[in-house]
Every structure is written in C-alpha cells, then in structure tokens.
Description:
Helix content is 3%, strand content 55%. By secondary structure, the chain is mainly beta. It has a 28-stranded mixed beta sheet that branches. Strands 4-11-12-7-8 form a 5-stranded mixed beta sheet. A 4-stranded mixed beta sheet has the order 17-23-22-18, with no helix packed on it. A hairpin with a 2-residue loop joins strand 7 and strand 8. 52% of the residues are buried.
Amino acid sequence: MRQHPLGVALAIAFPFVCSSAALAQADTSPVAVAENTAPTKSLGTVTVNSGQPTSLPTQIPTTIEGITREQLERTVNATDSEDALKYLPSLLVRKRYIGDYNHAILSTRASGTGNSARSLVFADGIQLSNLLGNGVGGLSFPPRWGLVTPEEIERVDVLYGPFSAAYSGNSVGAVVDYVTRMPTRFEAHAAVGFVDQPFSLYNTHSHFRAFQTSASVGNKSGDWAWWLNFNHTDSDGQPLTFATRLRSAGTAGTAGTAVNGAVLDANNANQPWFLLGSGTQYSTQQDHIKAKLAYDFSPTVRAAYTLGVWQNDSVGRPVSYLTNAAGQPVFSGPININGLAFTGNNALTGADFRTTTDQSTHVIHGLSVKSRTQGVFDWELAASLYDYVKDKTRANAAGNPFPGAASGGAGTIADGGGTGWNTLAARGTWRPEGMRGEHIVDSGVQQDSYKLSYVTSNIAGNYLADPAGSLASAVGGKTQLRSLWAQDTWAFASKWKAVLGLRAENWTASDGFTNFSAASAQRYGDRTLNDLSPKAALSYQWLTDTVLKASLGRAVRYPTVAELYGATSTTNSLFINDPNLRPEKSWTGELSAEKDLGNGLLRATLFAEDVRDSLYTQSILGLNPANPSQSISRVQNVGRIGTQGLEVAYSGNDVFTRGLSLNASVTYADSTIKENAGFVATPGDTIGKRQPNIAKWRATALATYRFDEAWTASLGARYAGPQFRTLNNSDVNGFTYMGVSKYFTTDLRVRWQVDKQWSAAFGIDNLNNYKYWNFHPYPQRSYSFNLKYDL
C-alpha cells in the first residue's frame, strides 16, 4: 500500500536539523533563474516559482493579493515601502508621516493597528516584523519598513490568514512578502522627490515638507549578480501629540499666570479639555543602504546574501499655544485660563512639552542557498540576523521644561543597543515520482530567537550629551520559537485539490528581568510551551471560470519578550508587563468564490476568527494624579474575541474602455469581545463591545487610465467607518487627540514617461483634505513631485 506523503514529510525535514548550514526562518528562496516569475493560481491554490528570494512556500492555500513594480509606479505616491499596501483589501498601515519608524503598524481583517504581532512582513525572505513586542506600549514594535525602499520593490504579495503551515501563529492576520530587484543585466537608477503638507489643526498652522533622494545600481555577469541601493530622507512631520488639561481639573480663582491661546475641545470621552500646545513634531533624517549579492553554483543552485543598514536621526520639539500678557510663550508653571487655575499637580512641567532626540543604527543580514530543479526534490537553507547596533533616545526630565531643555539640563537616556533577533530555517519540496503531480509536499524546520535589552538611565547634567548616570530602569529577556512543519498539496481529482498541513512548535521564555533600582530588581522563571497547529484547505473548480475554496487553520501567537518583561517608566509613559501571559490561540476559517471575468477577477470571501486569550495592550491617560500627562499601559489576556465578516474584491483591465484599470474592495467585519475576566472601569464593561481599531466597514477603490504610452493618471479612495480604541468602547469621540475616527480620503497621481530614461510624477494624497485620527492626527492634504532616471 502506498504511504501518504504527509506522513513522510516530517521525516524529510529532520536531516536539515543536523546540517551545519541550517539557516533562517523567513524562508529565503533564491534561484538560478534570474528573471522574476509572478505566483500563478490553479484550483484556488497559488504556486510560487519566483526567481527571487521570498518567504513564500511553493504552494499557498489562502487568499493572496499583490502589486507589481509597474502598478506601484503608476498608481501610488509611494514615499515608504508600506505605501505599496495602500489599496489592497482590508489592509491599513498606521503611517503618520514620511519615514514613520515607530508607529507604522499593519492592520488586517480582524487585527487592529495596536496588534503588530498578528502579522508577518518579509523582504527577500528576511523577516522585517519586529516580534520583540506588540504594538506600542512603553516601547514600539512596528515592522522595519525602512529596510526596503519603494525604488527597490519588484512586487509585493499578501497572504490572508494562518492557512499555511510554513508560518508561525503571527501570520493569523496576514503575511506580507516583498520581492526586491535583482538585475539580469547592468542597470542604474536615480530619483528625487519632494512633498509639501499644509497643515492646520488647533493653533498649529504651518507647512511640513519632506525631501528624498535615492540611487541604485546593479548587474549580472556570468554566475554573479549584485545590487546596491541608497536612499536618504529628510522629513518634517506634523505634530503628533498635544499638551492637555481637563477643564474640570481647573479651580476657579486668580492663581497662576494668566495665559491666552488655549483651545477648548472635547477629548475622546467627550469631556471638555484644553489643548495647550503641540509636541512630537519630528524632524527626521534617515539613510538606507542595501547590498545584495548572488552566485549561481549551477543552473539550479543559487546562494544569496543581503546586507541592509538603516540609520535614523530624529528630533522632536514642542510648541506652546500659550502666551502671557507680554506675548511670550509659556511652557511651565501654574497657569490660569479664563479664570480657571491649574496649579499643583496640574501645573505645567517638562512632561507636557517633551523634547526628544533619537539616534539609531540597525543592521540586517540575510543568507540563503536554494535549489530550483523543479524535479523530484528541491531544498533551501537560510538565515537572517537583525541587530540594534545603536538605539538611543534622549529626553528632558519633568523638572527641566522647555525652552531651557532645548539646550540641555536634566533628563534621561534610553539605550536599546544589543536588542535584536535571528532566524534559522531549512525547507524542502518533494514532488513524488509516479504520482503524476498528484502531490507536492513542502516541509521545513525553523528557529526564531529574540533578545530584548533596554536600559533607561538618569542624566543630571546635560541630557543631550552626557553619558548615562544612575539607573532608572533596565528590562530584558529572551524568547525562542522552534518549529517543525509540513503540508501536502494533493490534487486528488481533476477538479479538486486539498492542502493538508501541520505545524509543531516549542516556545521558551528565559532570562527575564525588570530592574527599577538595585533594591527592586526582579527576575522571572523560565517557561516552556508546546503546541500543534493543523491547517486544511479544499478547492473545487465548480465552473470553467469559477473556483470555490474553503480554508481552516489554527494559530498560536505566543507572548513577546516585551509583553513578558518589558516594563518601562518614563516621564510620559508607564508600561506594566506580565510574565505570566498565556499564548493567544485562534481558529480562522474562510469560504471563497473566485470568478474569472475574462478581463478581470471577482472574489467574495466569508471569513471568521475565534480567538481565546487575545493579547491586548491598552493605554490610558490621566490615571496618575501626580502626572496628568503620563500614559499608563498594561498588557493583558482578553478571554475571547469573535469576528465574522465578508470581503469582496475586484480587479480588472480595460474596463468599459481600453486603458482603464479598476481595483476595488469592500470589507464588513463584526468583531466583538465575547468573554473577558478583566475590565477597564467596572467588571463586565468590555463584554459585547467591539474589538478596538476594527471598523465594521472598510473599502478601497483605485482607477487608473493610460492615455498613451507616456501618460497615466490614477485616482484612489479609501474608507473606514467608526471605530474605538478602548476595550470598553468609552472613547465615543474619534475626531480628537487620542481618538480613532472614521475616514474617507482620495489620492491623485499623474505620471509622465518623458522618454526611455526619464519619468516624472505629480501627486496629491488626501486630496479632499479629510482630517482624521488614530490616536495621533494623520497627514492632511499633501502635494508630491518625483523625478526619476533609469539607465
């Protein structure tokens, strides 16, 4: 009797464990064939034959969407790599300004912009997802988008849901895979860009601008291929935070300095408050350097190495709206607003108008060796390393207010140097002989290791230049995930195909500690957990132009090292960790119908997700009466969250008339907290409430018209309905600082191919100048211009 290949697959993977070359989680897959091949689809399963490194398994049993380099150039005013996802169904990246490095988190169907650990991002098979933590709470953990520039992108593919055994439970939302350029001949490129944003909010009225330059060069000669990319960004973003005081915190009287300029508004709970000034207006300079080298050992075996360096220098400065009787700005001390005195703990301090200086150098390495025979067996070994070589933030102390803080004084320095992660992986693809293509078995082993090391120190003299002084806090620890997986793509009948997979995982957490002084040092015991995650998908060619598909997958999202151990306490924020967090366990399913319309594709997908012990971090302002400006965050398990929804997507070319392309999507998601032993204000106040940052309705539309070989124009639109930021949905006012609002924005891009080498583009993002929020204000109408030369 013939043995089923899935039963053999686990044994196939074991020789890789013993190999000294066993390398990287992010499945890098270089090939000897230099040209890029887009994924192809058959019976609802996508087959990947890319000639470029990629994290994708050869068989993908899930919904996949993507965008190519040509589409990106025609349709998107892309200043950062995450802009490529702008119009894909159900996706949103919380990008607040050009070069946003600490809050640009990806949101998916059932995961909001506070859950960065519920999606995976790769570039050329190298992991960019920062799984040291989740979201923003004390520290921030968005994907490292800056390690890819828009000019590098060859294509981007997005897999929805945890239906491939090749990925960890962090894939529960989506997997984003960037493939960057690798030349087949000599080529060189250069580009310059400029963006101007006229911004008006409260008492801030100014223009914020960004300049970008990039250059790249590469070649393929014989068995060698190489690529170099350089990018520089100089960006001034709009203010992101604001100094505030609840009107109810004031006391009738004459105490304090009488001030003008305060703006009366309502906070997210509709309580009246005063906006006193702006903060976190980043002036950012970033440099990106990428080098890629590939060597073909034979026509079917290729080795590839990638080195990426990202440097960031960012300064955040405040502006006070308040002036005294002499017209001078007021930044500190007791104040009086229209007869309401704010004194004592409600007086202004350096915490209200914070000054920051960030300096970072991050380095990434990726190495892979892969065969691509397309015969009985192919294999791959890969490794990656991400290193916080330098990561320092300097900030003024509460007792050192602006403007004096601009030139020094007391403060703190936070040092994340030595933090990072590394990944190792080995993978094989077996196409059994004698089965006429009935089976394709992918299998592999992986190891992902994470280390957090974050030390905050006081500086009594000049916080801008002096070395670290006494300890304020030190946190750290390690986590590791070892995985063994296999999946069999089985064409068991002419119109049927099944994908059956299983993922086995071993997770450990170790060496955890939190120190706030020598007397309060605390160390945590090690932990070990084991889980199995089955996956299954079934597709049926119902009609010659219609495929039906069902997918089901279990995902286990383990706590990150920062959630377990990353307690932080600064002038403006306090994060409370929990070393006993339970892993988040979910079942996700989808039912899809895809219809080929000849010149387009229409897809409808019903999706559902049931999550137990969902991991959530919530931030609340004003809980500390001694410091009203301090945001307090706590990570916790939420008992059960259920999501059901429908996603409809359409893409077509030459729609209605030759040259017109249309892409559109609509998503409905009903995401509700079903069980929760915890609460925000009173027991039970989260039950039945909507999951934060998930709108019931979302939609995208993108129309592109090609007038001739030289001119194209695109008009895009994005919509998301009302949503909440808090677990108890108490933030009923989204159109304010710390609120999360609905939005409807439109974007315009016009591109001119001047000749074979030169091209130019003009764009307007947020054409309708919609003022919307996700805790911080999003950019308002922005004008962009790009000039590019291709040799």
